[in-house]
Write a structure and sequence with these properties.
Helix content is 49%, strand content 14%.
Length: 394
């Protein structure tokens, strides 16, 4: 069986390197480790379902019907921000093409010169100036690019992410330039929802305990105990995470920069991205423009793929007949003078035949074709004249 190369068009997300998964024809982009993300969905949906089933009917009648309505609105907002953070491109930078990577390598070698064997080559960095502050651009050996300022390579997703904050397993995605604001709104709204459910769980237990007693209340609403436990242990982590990111936003700083101490003030290094104003920093992070994705995940590209031929290799005779049938050669008819001149032969043809005979007689013996001993062939006209002469003699 032979292989045939077939060119077909595929979406770019099907050939993107890295460790991401795509759904809905490239519209949804997530990390491969999604187990903790499913746990997040289960905890949020499960806790809210118990709240709507056990507490909301009682509170809507005895307190206000606005309590379940506000809870539904807050729940929908939390889910929207979670899915928006999880399913979006965090700001992944495309890797260098082979030609671009080769050109960058040549530039680096030309700048560093010849490094003696056994000596470590100098670090691959470039310096740029941002707000009168020197910022180093590091070279990524995986993506073959010089990373932009504030970008970093995520080891879990195996991609360089612009304005990389951190990789969050709870949302199943990296948090970067394009989804950080949605991540912050998710943590903020989830904190409010947790406090809201925890508060009205306590109110519900207190109000029913006045009439039915504390133990009877717990027996009649077993979901309340589970909700209180989930909200109690979730409250500290979610609220603490929201407070930490509020602090980072006020400084216009990322989690990655805070952990590394990039702008801690050591060696007189200040944060060149901060406006020295909390309101301006918050407006830039939360109210700035939405940056488009640079991946073009749903774009088309051509791919050459080998396909096994369905028919066996044809024999030489069959291939010859096929080539003749597919590309028939044009047939040409050439009229030549007879070998022996007769009365029907024109005069100009007779002179040509005589000249040809003289040239053949003058040619050397080795150039002549070998004799086969067969009698010479006569033209049809000569045979007809001979038969007519015999008839007349009889």
């Amino acid at each position: 069986m032979s292989a045939v190369m077939i060119t077909r068009k595929v979406r770019k997300w099907e050939k993107l390197p890295g460790k991401n998964t795509f759904c809905c024809d490239g519209r949804v982009m997530m990390a491969r480790q999604k187990g903790v993300f499913y746990l997040t969905l289960f905890l949020i949906i499960g806790t809210c379902t118990l709240f709507f089933a056990f507490e909301c009917p009682y509170l809507a009648v005895h307190l206000s019907p606005a309590i379940p309505v506000f809870a539904v609105v807050l729940f929908l907002f939390v889910m929207a921000m979670l899915l928006r953070t999880s399913f979006s491109d965090p700001g992944v930078l495309p890797r260098a093409l082979p030609e671009e990577a080769t050109f960058i390598e040549m530039e680096i070698e030309a700048a560093n010169g010849n490094v003696p064997s056994g000596q470590r080559p100098p670090p691959r960095i470039r310096n740029v100036q941002i707000n009168n502050q020197i910022v180093k651009l590091k070279y990524c050996y995986t993506c073959k690019i010089f990373r932009p300022p504030r970008a970093s390579h995520c080891s879990i997703c195996d991609n360089c992410v612009d304005r990389f904050d951190h990789h969050c397993p709870w949302v199943g995605n990296c948090v970067g330039k394009r989804n950080y604001r949605y991540f912050y709104l998710f943590t903020l709204s989830l904190s409010l929802l947790t406090i809201y459910i925890f508060t009205f769980d306590i109110v519900h237990v207190v109000m029913r305990s006045v009439d039915d007693g504390f133990l009877n209340t717990l027996k009649e609403t077993p979901g309340t105990v589970l909700e209180v436990l989930v909200c109690f242990f979730t409250l500290w982590s979610v609220v603490g995470l929201t407070g930490f990111h509020t602090y980072l936003i006020s400084l216009n700083q990322t989690t990655n920069e805070d952990i590394k101490g990039s702008w801690s003030g050591k060696n007189r290094v200040q944060n060149p991205y901060s406006h020295k104003n909390i309101i301006k920093n918050c407006c830039e992070v939360l109210c700035g423009p939405t940056y488009p994705s640079v991946l073009d995940r749903r774009g088309l590209m051509q791919e050459d793929s080998p396909v096994a031929a369905s028919s066996a290799v044809a024999s030489p005779s069959s291939s010859f007949s096929f080539s003749n049938s597919s590309n028939p050669a044009p047939q040409t008819t050439k009229t030549t003078a007879p070998l022996i001149p007769n009365e029907h032969t024109p005069d100009d043809a007779k002179s040509g035949i005589a000249a040809s005979a003289e040239s053949n007689s003058s040619s050397p013996a080795e150039d002549r074709p070998p004799s086969t001993g067969a009698p010479p062939l006569a033209s049809p006209e000569t045979d007809a004249e001979t038969s007519v002469a015999k008839d007349k003699s009889h």
